[in-house]
Amino acid sequence: MKLIVDDPNFPHGAKELDIVVYPNPILKKVAEPVEVFDEELKELCQNMLYTMYKAPGIGLAAPQIGIGKRIFVMDVDYDREFLDEDGNEVKISNLNPRIFINPQLKNHEGKTTYQEGCLSVPNIFDDVERYKTVDVEYQDVNGNKHTISTDDLLSICIQHENDHLDGIVFIEKLSHLKFNFYRQKLVKEKTRRGALK
């Protein structure tokens, strides 16, 4: 996919990382806290943002690129315009990238339902119940601490990505019947892809 972007918030010079797909075992592991805040961490976060935009998606957690650290990135605000029928050229604008390191969710209220998808669970979408609002304590790439109050799509996306840090994918929040159906579908697809290699 070719990205067309003219935005100073875009991670120019970053590289695309491979996204792991369920049922990869890394997606079931609880991620470890980040303890070292250095240039390598900053580069990783920029590469994660680039990978997310290229996918394209609105959130990406470190376990999804095979790294068991408590990091996720997101942008729920940017605009996407597909310039061709096949979706091979995408123009993105109005970027508002966010980086969350060692997040902790607090003070959740209310309930809401949203149709979620996931870059590690391709081509599957279903309604998931989440808290409507949530406060998040986190660190930035320099280790500075922040707290924000979130609602709506930002709150939903933060809860979704934070689940990845705890070894949970969104289909596991569905009914037992739906989860088994989607899991079998994904395993079959993985087997089919393996047979084609």
Describe this structure in words.
The protein is an alpha+beta fold. It has one domain: Peptide Deformylase (Alpha-Beta Complex). The protein has 3 helices and 8 strands. It has helices at 39-54, 152-165, 176-196; strands spanning 2-5, 59-61, 71-74, 79-82, 89-93, 98-118, 121-139, 145-151. The strands form 2 sheets. Strands 2-3-6-7-8 form a 5-stranded antiparallel sheet. The protein has a 3-stranded mixed sheet with strand order 1-5-4, with no helix packed on it. A hairpin with a 6-residue loop joins strand 4 and strand 5. The longest helix is centred in the last third of the chain and has 21 residues, at 176-196. 28% of the residues are buried.
Structural class: alpha+beta
Query: Per the principal axes of the C-alpha atoms, what is the gross shape?
Result: globular
Oligomer: single chain
As for the CATH topology, it is: Peptide Deformylase
Radius of gyration, whole Å: 17 Å
- State the total count of DSSP E strands: 8
The description of the largest β-sheet is:
5 strands, antiparallel
- The tally of structural domains comes to 1
- Give the termini separation: 21 Å
How large is the share of residues in beta strands? 25-35%
